[in-house]
Amino acid sequence: MAGAFKPLKEGRHEANLFRRRALAGFLIIVLCLCALAVRFAFLQVERHDEFSARSEANRVLTRPLAPARGLIYDRNGVLLAENVAAFRLEVTPEQVRDMPDMLARLGQFVPLGEDDIARFNALRKGKRSYQGVPLRMKLSEEEIAKFSVNRWAFPGVEVVPYLTRSYPLGAEFAHTVGYVGRIDTDDLAKLDKGDYAGTTHIGKTGIERYYEDRLHGEVGYEKVEVNADHRPLRVLPDRLAPKQGENLYLTIDSHLQQVAEAAFEGRAGAAVVIDPRNGEVLAMVGVPSFDPNPFVNGIAHADYAALLAAPDKPLLNRVIRGSYLPGSTMKPFVALGGLELGLRRPSDTVLSTGEFFIPGQSRAYRDDVRGGFGRVDLVQAIAKSVNTYFYSVALDMGIDRFSGFMSTLGFGKPTGIDLVGEGSGVLPSREWKRARYKQPWYPGETVIAGIGQGYWVVTPLQLANALATLANRGIPHTPHLLRAVQSGLDGRPEVVSSPPLPGVIHKPDNWLAVHQGMMEVVKIGTARGLNDGFPYVIAGKTGTAERFSRTDDTWTSISASPIERHQVLFECFTPADQPRIAVIVALEAGRSGAHDAAPIARKILDAWLPGDIEAQGIDPRTKVAASSQEPRR
Amino acid sequence: MMIDELFASLRYRLRSMWRRPRIDLPLFGGLLLLMGVGLMTLYSASDFDRGQVLAQALRFALGLALMFAIARVPPLTLRNWTPWLYAASVVLLVIVALHGEGRGANRWLDLRIVRFQPSELLKLTMPMMVAWYLNGRPLPPGWGTLGMVGALIAVPAALVAKQPDLGTALLIAASGAFGVFLSGLAWWRIGLLVGAFVGVVPIAWHFLHDYQRNRVLTLLDPEADPLGNGWHIIQSKIAVGSGGLWGKGWHHGTQSRLEFLPEHTTDFIFSVFAEEWGLVGVLLLLALYVFIIARCLWIAAEAKDTYARLLAGAISMALFVYVVVNGGMITGVLPVVGVPLPLVSYGGTSAVSLLAGFGVLMSIHAHRKTVAG
User: Fold this and answer.
1) Cβ of A128 under 8 Å from any chain B Cβ?
2) What is the pTM of this model?
3) In this structure, is residue A341 part of a structural domain?
4) Which positions in chain B touch A226 (Cβ < 8 Å)?
5) Contact residues, B window 283-342, toward A, CB-based 8 Å cutoff
């Protein structure tokens, strides 16, 4: 057997050799372990801060907390837009093995539309696979129950509570309050990413859009501890609560709004009610309207297509974007222009023969009555809507002074109301025509502009704005919808002031004469009978414009039916001596302003009256007779 | 051989085996302390999984029982068994190479009752064989002896590396090499061998598996693939570095508790320890290892014959390889090879084979006066 015995000397030699080697080995070991210790010290002391930060970054996920959106009320505290609790299905793609199969199986319990799946797939692309992606919004209780029973079969799918915007009055305020919708790629480009980190919806139209900054609030943050699979384990105490958006109180009176809308009985048109003393819009109605609620979480393509294709254009916000030919409703403003420019005195008369000619031209511009009205002054001209009077005033003004004066009343430009997308209408002017048609201006066009015809296009809001300025004796206010703002739940609503703009009527006699004419309209003129039973004196003016379509050089009437061939309007304010309400009603099809539009205005006034009596503290009905007989000259 | 002599020898052996075992108390105390630290760290790293800790404690108990049993076997008996044990473990390795099973690597041998890795056996039989062979040769060894020992080391190491289990192959080769080193191999020969090894590295690179190459490449630049191969190293360095001087406290290590750190109960348990106990804890743990190794080398130096000396010395120094390779791996200076932290990492075979090794040391210590040189 090898090496069982060795000479003693050799053994001792080997033992010594081993001792030396063991010592050398031990020194090497200690050296290596020291090197290792240095390495540990380098990581744990020298680079400690760096690795600490990375460890925290691993562990802590900062989650944005979306602020609750501010609520929207009418002037009396009626809720127009609220946040309601709802449930949605959310999918974490990382935890789903076979997505198409899962969606197919899920569809048996919770109906999934093609839109849902298409949107889901689009949203997925922008997120990490461990982030939840909403699949179906607004689950019904039945759907939640069905899914919950079968939940075990769908790992990675969860029912998540959220707050969604709801508009309890629906179509009533679609054009005023507007609606919110999911943030899309266009919005993302404009938004502050940090501020909207937890927010899914943003104001798309109306007040919701205009006051987005006030309504949105401020984002909060919470920190959650996550594991390596990004699964949240617990919420850390370090938390910044979101700040709720501001609650808005509108100038709108929802009761008045409802009455006004009902008065239209479904006929297409628009109405605007303004308090001329301060520019507060009490009601703005566009008929037909649409239910904004489906838009919040994405309206189905088919439904949206149907809305787009509807002949009455329910999506069109008629109050701020509708195009109306003002017709005779423009006459009080033309008369005012004549006075203000010093071309007429109120007592000056014009002979109406039924036909009006520009000197040296043969084309006749007609009155409504064959043979004319005879000699009329300003008051009679407005009361009877005598075209000849206004032809001659407009012609004397000339187009430049005409459009200049009308511009001071706000025509041809947005009024500046707190809504997005307001139209400008068309104020006939030499510049406008040159820009639009590259043609010179003809005097005949000035003549018909004098009765609100020709190139004129106004939005109901522009007309209401001009009417309110006239009613308020020439002191304009920017029409607006925001009355007061409430920040925080316990905050007091703070009224937003709207200072008056510089006056545009310089002689009180001028507006007095025009007011007189408009009172006569209701008393004996085109809208007589409107004041019956109403305690305040109403001043108004009808407008009936033929609906033409223009092809090249010829004007053709749109409809042969007398019920439909006119665009009819009515404007009025009351009480005539101290106007507190101004109303514009425009119907897109009707017989005449007095016949169709004026009754709607009266219904609005009737609905407004009780509140006004309460606010005034005196019941004017006791002195009806006295006030209507009192001459105001 | 006479019947009487046979009986006498048997009686003697039985008596010596059943005598109160003479355990080296400092070494035993050090081992118990280390196992305590291991179980405590495992309890935290497994997120208070009592079952896992209990299983590990049972393995420790099994290992300690084996340690006591081996401690009663005289080194002479071990020496006589050595060639057979070595041969048996190499045969088992060959069987595994032909029929083995395991996740991604053929390491396991299923014996129906127990499944174990024959490569673990070699951690013990390799230094035994080297000690046995060198015991019969004139020392310091010459080139001829060196060549023979080289073959004894290379064959099983290559078989294990082929499984592929680079970490264990490294440990086996190292334990053999330490035997040669301790036998007094001339320094100039060592220098030449190291030089030759450095020359061979580029050639060895060629034969490495892709995953082994990736480990080395990842080590050089872990951030290049932070979610793939670099993940282990990066997360381990974060764990260690974020521990700081004093550590985050027991079970407050977020890297392991939140599962950012992979293999945090086995190969990377040292990272958990470093995260929770900081540099101070690491230094104390390293000091404990130094103490154990020093004590083992002391026992080796006291042994009276060359076989016992070399065997004890090689086992002691192999322990150091575990610590340095594991520590280098979790701090990102050495590639990720599956080397556990001795008596701390979760895992049965490694704990049992280590404690069996300490049993050999205890035996050498206990019989240092009964075995004639």
Assistant:
1) no
2) 0.72
3) yes
4) 258
5) 283, 286, 289-290, 293-294, 297, 300-301, 304-307, 309-310, 313, 317, 320, 323-324, 327-328, 331, 333
Instruction: Encode pLDDT of A299-311 as tens digits.
Output: 888 889 999 998 8
Question: With contact defined as beta carbons under 8 Å apart, do A392 and A448 qualify?
Answer: no
Residue A33 tokens read as 């372990």
Listed residues A220, A250, A280: the one ending a domain: A250
Question: Which residue range forms the structural domain that includes residue A258?
Answer: 254-483+500-629
* Nearest to A167, CA basis, from A156, A155, A158, A176: A176
pLDDT at residue B370 above 50? Answer: no
A327 and A185, same structural domain? no
Query: Is A224 found in the same domain as A291?
Result: no
A30 in a domain, yes or no?
A: no
Nearest to A48 by CA among B330, B252, B275: B275
CATH assignment at residue A200: 3.90.1310.10
> Does residue A629 surpass a pLDDT of 70?
no
pLDDT tens digit sequence for A546-571:
765 444 444 455 555 555 668 899 99
Active site residues of A: 328
Are A574 and A568 in contact by the 8 Å Cβ rule? The answer is no
pLDDT digits (tens, 9 = 90+) for B29-70: 999 999 999 999 999 988 888 999 999 999 999 999 999 888
Query: Structure tokens of A201?
Result: 């919806």
A250, A269, A303 - which closes a domain: A250
pLDDT at A562: 53
Cβ of residue A15 closer than 8 Å to a chain B Cβ: yes
Task: State the nearest Cα–Cα gap between B33 and chain A, in angstroms.
Answer: 19
- Cβ–Cβ contact A309 with B under 8 A: no
Same domain for A217 and A276, yes or no, is no
Considering only CB atoms, A18 lies closest to which of B137, B254, B313, namely: B313
A346 in the same domain as A203: no
The dihedral of CA B104, B109, B114, B120: what is its sign? negative
* CATH number of the domain residue A542 falls in: 3.40.710.10
Per-residue pLDDT averaged across A587-615, rounded?
A: 90
Q: Does A2 touch chain B (CB under 8 A)?
A: yes
Contact A124, A116 (CB under 8 A): no
Q: Is A40 in Cβ contact with B282 (below 8 Å)?
A: yes
Q: How far is A258 from chain B (nearest CA, A)?
A: 59
What is the pLDDT, as a whole number, of residue A620? 67
Tell if the CB–CB gap between B293 and A26 is shorter than 8 Å: yes
Task: Report yes or no on A98 lying in a domain.
Answer: no
Task: Tell me if A45 and B279 make a contact (CB, 8 A cut-off).
Answer: yes
Count of structural domains within chain A: 2
A246 and A259 housed in the same domain: no
- Is the residue at A85 inside a domain? no
Does residue A220 share a domain with residue A293?
Answer: no
* Mean pLDDT, chain A, integer: 87
User: Of all residues in chain A, what percent carry a pLDDT higher than 70?
Assistant: 93
**Nearest-neighbour CA in chain A from B110: distance (Å):** 34
